[in-house]
Amino acid sequence: MKKIYIILFLFCFLLKVSAQQTGLAFGISSGINGSSLNGQNVDSLSTGGVLKSLTGQTIGITLDNKLSKYFGLKHEVFYSRKLISLQLNDTLNGDYKSKFKRQYIELFPVSPAFYYKGIQLFAGPYIGILLNASLQRKNADGNLYTDKSLYGNGTTPSKYSQKMDAGFTAGLNYEFSNGIRLGGRYIQGFVPLIENANTNSQWKIYNESFFVTIGYTFKNK
Q: Pick from 172, 162, 151: which is nearest to 194 by CA?
């Protein structure tokens, strides 16, 4: 939790610094996301490496700090609900589909951006804070239930979810003259999704997602 507070404090500090700039514009966004996993050990989590991206939801706020006509910095924070369909296997039920559910706070602290008319191109670092995670499993009667043990706790020795992710984002927005904004972004994580502290090798499984959003920018008069 201390790491979360530190990151949120730094983000608020950046917002305060940005607020002192005359080119500041505040915006809100919401939309959908498609999540997936990549890496050479995806089959360790999902049998045969079978994955299917499911539609999740995302909502967030953006501060655009325009330093010149064509260049500026974006500071953003989003809440995202991510869903992926995996394939699990056990001796009683064989292969079956399982929903892998997660919720994240996703920070994009400083993304350099290029502005030209209504077009905005941006790229920068990404930090993800995992709030919860669960898998669907089948019991001895073949009924699905929600298993939250993958999230892990202080006593979990291995095969638990990493609580922090980090990587990069790149995206494109188009903003109309009335402030309505359409956008899309790609996010790639670099931190292994599952921590295998008691095993010989770390699973190389990484987060990957794509956002499509609609938003509105409140411009300074």
A: 162
